[in-house]
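AAA-ATPase At3g28540-like (Camelina sativa), 497 aa
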Amino acid sequence: MLEAGAIWGFTSTTMASLMFFWSMYKQFAPYHVRLYLERYFYKYLNKWFGEDMKSVHIIFPEYTGEGLTKSRAFDEIRNYLSTRSTATARRLKANESENSKSVVLSLDDNEDIVDVFQDVKVVWSLSLVNKENQSVSKEGRHLTMSFDNQYRDMITKTYLDHVLREGKEIGLKNRERKLYTNNSSTDFSSWRDGRWSNVPFNHPATFETLAMDHEKKEEIKKDLIKFSNGKDYYRKVAKPWKRGYLLFGPPGTGKSTMISAMANFLEYDVYDLELTTVRNNSELQKLMLDTKGKSIVVIEDIDCSLDLTGQGKKKDEEDEDEEDIEEKKKEAEKLKKDRVLKESNVTLSGLLNAIDGLWSACSDEKIIVFTTNFVDNLDPALIRRGRMDRHIEMSYCRFEGFKVLAKNYLDIESHDLYGEIKRLLEETDMSPADVAETLMPKSDEEDADICIKRLVKTLKEEKEKARKLAEEEEKNKAEKKEKKEKIEEEEKEKAKK
Ligand SMILES: Nc1ncnc2c1ncn2[C@@H]1O[C@H](COP(=O)(O)OP(=O)(O)OP(=O)(O)O)[C@@H](O)[C@H]1O
Ligand SMILES: [Mg+2]
């Protein structure tokens, strides 16, 4: 009886002491001491149960080369493991990386995680490299992959391929999307940041908020989905995985908005290429090579970037002899290919080469978009199918577009004046930007009714303005014709004399 009491007393005292030490250890032991002890505890536990005996270990360091470049494989594996570790790891690290949309949970230092692939167990562990061993001051880590030797072939080929591919996909999905602009080649201070500078891309435009014909919108969305899923197709038909869009239409019809909607729809980055600051063709080539996959490269107002003087329709063209115009056009056509850009030495042929030369096969999917207000001024070579695969006209606001804008700006789907607005929009050319501006409430007192009435009033005024302008033009034309006929008659009279 006494013995049982003594045993009980000893056990409970030991348990109490152990619990006391455990809570002291948890509270006061420094974090790195705990990591060290726990790491060795698990390691030896594995060894005692004989799991480690036939293992192969492969190390993936965080920094490669001289320790200055971050290893892409390391990041991709970490992305892949983040999905596994969120569910199973005991200790996670929350990273607020500047390249990701939100906090990303990943494996903590000195933590292990088990992944199972085709019934084979793979153990991953993340360790901090001793500072003494490092040639650079950066804190380095490495990931170790351990597995049974008998699966060496399958793991090093199939499994690793799968991990890197998935990790890359996850990285692209989690990344914060960027809007890149090319640095001016004369701005030396920006050189160290590379050829492109970037800001987070937060434009809120979507296809749902875009005012345009519903069918046209759906068609574009389908085309984009087909393109982004077309990796195998493009490989099969031996074409680089890229697609060109030409957006044309009057100012304020939503060309730039459409680009943002496309980028948001596909979750792509946007590279806004300012051609006038590019020095020459080779710099343009380098800029293009420096763009990543899953991106849209945009050249806005391409007609203004290219020096097309002599090719486009001039205002006084009408006054010139028709023969003269034809002659000038032919001459311009000949010179076109080697024409230089207004403020740089980029030529048209350089631009053509840059958008679909050999480089275009060097990276993953890419969309190229040109926008212009004057499609007729563009060189046919620049916009031919295959280079600009789809030509999309952004037109003045019609009733269907108006309904989208009214829903966006006023949150209404019908009104007594809709019939009148429909008729007026058919007869008047008003850009979606102008319609949107008119519909926008200017103060808290303004409700949907006031805004709709203002639109009707503005449309009527615009219609009247357009009518007067047309009348004036007609009058001017008639006057010119009369003048010309008079001169011709006078010349005939002179000739008779
Ligand atoms: N189709 C549209 N749908 C929704 N909003 C539009 C549309 N078009 C224009 N807007 C509104 O008008 C503003 C100007 O449009 P945007 O800059 O896209 O026109 P743009 O065609 O690129 O003009 P520009 O030729 O002058 O560059 C946008 O911020 C947007 O609010
Ligand atoms: Mg624009």
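The two ends are 153 Å apart (CA to CA). Residues 255-256, 300, 371 surround magnesium ion (ligand 2) (CB under 6 Å). ok done for today
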